[in-house]
Amino acid sequence: MSLAKRFLALQLGLVIVISVVVALVMIQQTRSWVTLRAESVTRAATSVMAQDPFVRDGMKSEDPTARLQAYAHRIEDESDIDFVTLMTPEGTRLTHAIPEFVGHEYSGDRSRALADETYTVTETGQLGPSVRTIAPIFDTDGSIVGLVSSGVLLNQIAQENRQQLPGLALIVLALLVMSSLVSYVLARYLSRATNGQAPESLVRSQALNRAVLAEAREGLVLLDQLGRPVLANLRARHLLDMKPAADDAAQAQRRRSVTLRRRNEPLPTEILPTVIRELVDGQREFLDEWCTVGTRTLIVSCVKASRDSKLRVLIVQDHTELTRLSGELDTVRTMAAGLRAQTHEHANRMHTVVSLLELERYPQALEFAASNLTVTRDLGTTVTESVADPYLSALLLGKTAEAHERGVDLQVVVHGEIPASTADPSEVVSVVGNLVDNAIYAAASNQDREEPAVEVELAPSERPGYVQLTVADTGPGVDPEVADSLFDRGVSTKPTGGSMRGVGLHLAYQIAESWGTRLSFVNDAGAVFTVEIPVHDSARDAEEDDS
User: Which UniProt keywords apply (predicted)?
Assistant: First the structure.
């Protein structure tokens, strides 16, 4: 049974119990009220008759019954009194509702009346159980000349109680219907809020959600309908650098409690970065928006939590991880392309050497093989001996072979010794690989006008701890129409046809900014891109070692 159904059953049971209790209390209160009313009526009527001169004079007349019987019947007919009994101090009835009992002795207690006391009791007489009031009748000299008793029968009280029952039943029924309706509405709301799940299922779902939130590699933030964070996992707090609001904990707690009381809405104690808040406020839903928070470049998406929910989920991915994966893939792809190009080139040269040997042209075969070995060894020696970073040197060698296969002459010029980079290898591979790939593509696409060539230059920078990378090509250069927005995501000079166009340069630009440098370009017989790469500073490292 779902939580909503259990809640509804419990509420209905509780409503029924409360309704029964209320009905019993109301019946008891009604009975008490009718009884009190009967006591009040009998006391008032008895007091009035005890002080009536007509009654006093009748009690002293020669035939009291003849004078007072009609009087008593008139009182019974014109009031709520069921019977009026006038009697002598000795207890002999002078009047009665049933004439046959006139002259008989009064069966109730009259001792307190003889002691000058007016009192109300519940007794059983000739007509049955009744609530009656007995009072003495005084003569002008203060002596008791008789007693008067008036009463209301209990069956009459019961009848009045029964007359009240329909009204009580209507009130209880209305209470039951309204309470049941409220319980049903609450159960419907609870069913929607819990998707009709049982408590055990909710517990399991909660445990699963906590595990997913704790272990998820993406940052996840739950936003309310106003775009405020109400729940975030640790990864999101780390990536977005979410911090408490400016007020201290006591003020936040006080403000939260006031808000909850007045508006019944959660007040977030943490705030989103400005750039994320602008994205969330500007669009209800979006996918793969790139933004920078601190030193991190993030990919942010915002989707609905569920189909009919007003809540949204903010999904945050660190581009560093994507860059690492992309860089690893690019490195593997470059190495594979280089190996494929080298294999193809080596096969062609081996066929040529074999053919020269078959033609017995041994000097030419030796010269051809030695020249190829010299070129390959010179290039490998220049890169590997001058560039200490193994990832960068391997990338340049692979790109050289790939460019050669595409008919592009790629030259690597190294000035001095290039220390290993302090940046993440995947970031270095991503920046250099994107720039070289774009240069090879531009040079190859412009080969009908210029001899396709690319030059990669590495030289010490004027800034300590950096080397300057320059990539120049013989392509057509950067189109002036896109020059101002070249590093924006989605902007590309290549033909459209892929969803990943316009990502490489944007990613390289973001990485360069995280290094504390800038990626720039000029058009000079082609495009020339320049960026500074952070490297180990030998002088600074030596000072740190000495300290």
Answer: ATP-binding, Cell membrane, Kinase, Membrane, Nucleotide-binding, Phosphoprotein, Transferase, Transmembrane, Transmembrane helix
Q: What gap in Å lies between CA 347 and CA 370, rounded to an integer?
A: 15
Q: What is the DSSP letter of 141?
A: T
Using CA atoms, how far residue 514 sits from 49, 107, 294, 391, in Å, is 108, 111, 9, 20
Rg (CA), the chain: 52
Q: Are 524 and 472 in contact (CB under 8 A)?
A: yes
pLDDT at residue 529, rounded to an integer = 94
For residue 252, the Cα-to-chain-centroid distance in whole angstroms is: 19
Beta strands in 258-354 (DSSP E): 270-271, 286-293, 296-304, 312-318
Q: Which run of H or of E encompasses 239?
A: helix 234-240
Which residues does residue 292 pair with via DSSP β-bridges, in sequence order? Answer: 297
Tell me the C-alpha distance between 372 and 98, whole Å: 146
Q: Are strands 409-414 and 453-460 parallel, antiparallel or unpaired?
A: parallel
List, in sequence order, every residue forming a beta bridge with 243; answer none if it has no partner.
271
Q: What is the pTM of this model?
A: 0.46
Could you give the CA distance from residue 271 to residue 256 in angstroms, rounded to a whole number?
14
CA 523 to the chain's CA centroid: 52
Smallest Cα–Cα separation from 85: which of 34, 119, 49? 49
Cross-strand bridge partners of residue 297:
292
State the amino acid at position 523 in one-letter form.
N
Alpha carbon distance 406, 413 (integer Å): 20
pLDDT tens readout for residues 275-315:
888 888 877 788 888 777 776 778 899 988 877 778 889 99
CA angle 60, 65, 71 (to 5 degrees): 95
Q: What is the pLDDT of residues 48-72, one digit of tens each?
A: 888 888 888 888 888 888 888 888 8
| Alpha-carbon gap, residue 175 to 169, rounded angstroms | 10
What is the DSSP pairing of strand 527-534 with strand 312-318?
unpaired
**Cα distance between residue 354 and residue 365, in whole Å:** 8
Alpha helices (H) in 94-194, listed in sequence order: 111-114, 154-194
Tokens encoding 105:
């002795």
Q: How far is CA 16 from the centre of its chain?
A: 35
Residues 296/302/306/311 CA torsion (nearest 10 deg) = 90
- 83's tokens: 């019977």
Query: DSSP labels for 197-235?
Result: --HHHHHHHHHHHHHHHHH-SSEEEEE-TTS-EEEE-HH
Q: Which of 286, 318, 279 is nearest to 303 (CA)?
A: 286
Distance CA 142, CA 59 (A): 14
CA dist., res. 282 & res. 274, Å (int): 12
Q: Is-contact 118 44, C-beta < 8 A?
A: no
Q: Directed axis angle between helix 390-405 and helix 425-445, to 10°? A: 20
Listed residue (513, 479, 480, 505) closest to 493, CA to CA: 479
Output the six-digit token pair for 506: 């944007």
Q: Report the percent of the chain where pLDDT is more than 90.
A: 6
For residue 281 the two structure tokens come to 């406020």
